[in-house]
C-alpha cells in the first residue's frame, strides 16, 4: 500500500458511520468522507495517543514547537511600539488613544455611538 492517507496523526481514528454501495467514514475533523467498499483500512487507533497531554516543561520547547508550525511564538503589542511602527504606538505611557467618535463622513452603518459635532462654532 501507500502507507495510508487519512487519520494518520498520533491517537486519531475514523469511525464508520454507514455501509452500503459507499462506506461513510466520520473523520477526526468532523467531516464525513465517502470511500469505496473495496478500500483497505486498518482497524484500531494510531499509536502515540495522549501526546498532546504531556506538558511542555520549559518555554524553549514551546517556542520551537510554535516556530515549526509557522506561528509567531512572541507577539509585540502595538502600544509598546513607536508611532512609525503601529497606530497604537508612541506616548509616554502605554495607551491606545485615538478619537472616541466616528468621522462625520462615515457611511450610514458606521455612524453609531459618539458622533462629531456638525459645526465647531466659537460662541
Task: Write a compact overview of the structure shown.
This protein has 123 residues and is largely without helices or strands.
**CATH classification, class level of the largest domain:** Mainly Beta
- The pLDDT mean sits at 90
What shape does the CA trace take? elongated
Helix and strand string, N-terminal first? EEEH
Distance from first to last alpha carbon: 86 Å
Any low-confidence stretches, pLDDT <50, length ≥5?
none
Task: Work out the helicity level.
Answer: under 10%
CATH fold category name of the largest domain: SH3 type barrels
Radius of gyration over C-alpha positions, nearest whole angstrom? 28 Å
Question: Number of helix segments?
Answer: 1
The largest sheet is: 3 strands, antiparallel
* Chain oligomer state: single chain
What does this structure look like?
With 123 residues, the protein is largely without helices or strands. It has two domains: 1-53, Roll (SH3 type barrels); 55-90, no CATH class. Helix content is 8%, strand content 11%. It contains one helix and three strands. The protein has one helix at 59-68, and strands spanning 15-19, 23-26, 32-35. The protein has a three-stranded antiparallel β-sheet with strand order 1-2-3, with no helix packed on it. Strand 2 and strand 3 form a beta hairpin. The longest helix is centred in the middle third of the chain and has 10 residues, at 59-68. The protein is elongated, with a radius of gyration of 28 Å. The model has no long low-confidence stretch (mean pLDDT 90).
Amino acid at each position: 500500500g501507500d502507507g495510508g492517507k487519512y487519520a494518520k496523526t498520533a491517537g486519531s481514528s475514523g469511525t464508520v458511520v454507514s455501509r452500503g454501495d459507499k462506506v461513510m467514514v466520520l473523520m477526526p475533523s468532523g467531516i464525513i468522507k465517502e470511500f469505496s467498499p473495496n478500500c483497505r483500512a486498518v482497524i484500531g487507533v494510531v499509536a502515540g495517543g495522549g501526546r498532546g497531554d504531556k506538558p511542555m516543561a520549559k518555554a524553549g520547547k514551546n517556542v520551537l514547537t510554535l516556530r515549526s508550525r509557522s506561528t509567531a511564538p512572541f507577539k509585540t503589542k502595538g502600544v509598546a511600539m513607536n508611532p512609525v511602527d503601529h497606530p497604537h504606538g508612541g506616548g509616554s505611557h502605554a495607551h491606545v488613544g485615538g478619537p472616541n467618535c466616528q468621522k462625520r463622513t462615515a457611511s450610514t452603518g458606521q455612524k453609531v455611538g459618539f458622533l462629531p459635532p456638525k459645526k465647531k462654532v466659537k460662541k
